[in-house]
């Protein structure tokens, strides 16, 4: 019996086969149980020899069964490990992640710096009436500035009586909208897209400006100069950048100034904040009384400064980008080269 069952157990290849063997050998109606029942017919001497032997046989078969069962489980696990492998040393497929566009990033940097100076961010529509874009800014219909700005006019169907709309040519209309909405005093910047029909290495039909406007009881050009120098020093991360104010003309400021920042060229490389060269970066001035009045603010009580700066331009200067058009190409190789994409 022992040889028969131990042999069968050794040859079993799965748990189901083991269960069949178990029932046949040591089950309630198995062969060992039958033999046990025969003990009753034996003489006491015979019984004393056979009883323990049968019990031992039963134990031996049971432990062979459980050893085999464990062995089968191990083998199954080994087999799974062999067939379901994964080579974790293989290089993963590169996953390109989107990043913030340089223009958005620079807009955020600008807003963060001006926030420290007490300026909050204002917004206005990119499609605005020609009143906000021009008239309210002291640029009446015949004014040459309208022609100079290469304005995109929205088409109006015959009989459409809405006021003429334009793609805003600058962020200055937001000056008027903010004066109307907030009144004086106020301190805001407005970053955003603007549009002019122009295209070459330094001009794209859509580009970005950041407008600045501060209105209070006694604001002066000195406040403007200090504010801009604080801003440029923080933006270019260079202490004490100098600015140069050149007399200029804008219909919406009086007096007006174009502002340059200190720079120099060393071995064909532009160095901001060093040397005795100058780079034009923005237009500015004291808000014209007519503009304050158009925004509903009393020019006898309040005054302010305003400036408008090209975001794309200061981004080019900060990151050494030679061609403005690249900002709008969405060329991933370019974005990666400047560290703006992974
Ligand atoms: N709006 C002017 C431009 O687009 C810039 C400017 C803004 C100048 C505010 C003076 C004051 O060129």
Notes on the protein architecture:
Helices cover 41% and strands 22% of the residues. With 342 residues, the chain is of the alpha+beta class. Strands 1, 4, 5, 6, 7, 8, 9 and 10 form an 8-stranded mixed sheet that branches. A two-stranded antiparallel sheet has the order 2-3. Helix 1 (2-11) packs parallel to helix 4, helix 2 packs antiparallel against helix 4 (44-83) and helix 5 (102-116) crosses helix 11 (311-319). The mean pLDDT is 91. The structure holds phenylalanine. Phenylalanine (PHE) is lined by residues 170, 172, 250, 253, 283-285, 306-308.
Summed up:
It is an enzyme of class 6 (ligase). By secondary structure, the chain is of the alpha+beta class. It has helices spanning 2-11, 15-26, 31-38, 44-83, 102-116, 130-133, 144-148, 173-182, 221-236, 289-294, 311-319, 332-337; strands at 120-121, 127-129, 165-167, 186-195, 206-216, 243-250, 253-266, 269-272, 277-287, 303-310.
């Amino acid at each position: 019996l022992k040889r028969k069952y131990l042999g069968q157990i050794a040859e079993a290849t799965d748990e189901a086969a083991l269960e069949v063997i178990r029932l046949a050998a040591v089950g309630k109606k198995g062969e060992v149980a039958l033999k046990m029942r025969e003990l009753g017919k034996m003489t006491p001497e015979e019984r004393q020899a056979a009883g323990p032997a049968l019990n031992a046989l039963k134990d031996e078969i049971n432990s062979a069964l459980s050893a085999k069962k464990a062995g089968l489980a191990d083998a199954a696990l080994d087999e799974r490990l062999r067939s379901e492998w994964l080579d974790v040393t293989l290089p993963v497929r590169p996953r390109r992640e989107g990043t913030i566009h340089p223009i958005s990033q620079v807009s955020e940097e600008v807003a963060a710096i001006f926030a420290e100076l007490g300026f909050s961010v204002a917004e206005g529509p990119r499609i605005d009436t020609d009143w906000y874009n021009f008239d309210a800014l002291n640029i009446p219909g015949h004014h040459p500035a309208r022609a100079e700005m290469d304005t995109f006019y929205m088409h109006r169907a015959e009989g459409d009586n809405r006021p003429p709309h334009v793609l805003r040519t600058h962020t200055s209309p937001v000056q008027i909208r903010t004066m109307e909405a907030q009144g004086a005093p106020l301190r805001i910047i407005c970053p955003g897209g603007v549009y002019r029909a122009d295209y070459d290495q330094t001009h794209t039909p859509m580009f970005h400006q950041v407008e600045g406007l501060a209105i209070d009881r006694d604001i002066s050009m000195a406040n403007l100069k200090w504010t801009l120098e604080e801003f440029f020093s923080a933006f270019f991360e260079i202490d004490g950048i100098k600015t140069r104010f050149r007399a200029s003309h804008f219909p919406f400021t009086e007096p007006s100034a174009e502002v340059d920042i200190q720079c120099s060229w060393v071995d064909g490389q532009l160095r901001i904040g060093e040397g005795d060269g100058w780079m034009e970066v923005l237009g500015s001035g004291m808000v014209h009384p007519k503009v304050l009045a158009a925004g509903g603010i009393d020019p006898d009580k309040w005054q302010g400064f305003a400036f408008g700066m090209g975001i794309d331009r200061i981004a080019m200067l900060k990151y050494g980008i030679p061609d403005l058009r690249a900002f709008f190409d969405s060329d991933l190789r370019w974005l990666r080269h400047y560290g703006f994409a992974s």
